[in-house]
Amino acid sequence: MDQYYHNSEKTHEIQDIHPTGVCCMFIASKYEEIYPIRIKTVYNKIAHTKISISQIKEKESVIMMTLDF
Question: What count of other Cβ atoms lies within 10 Å of the Cβ of residue 19?
Answer without folding.
Answer: 18
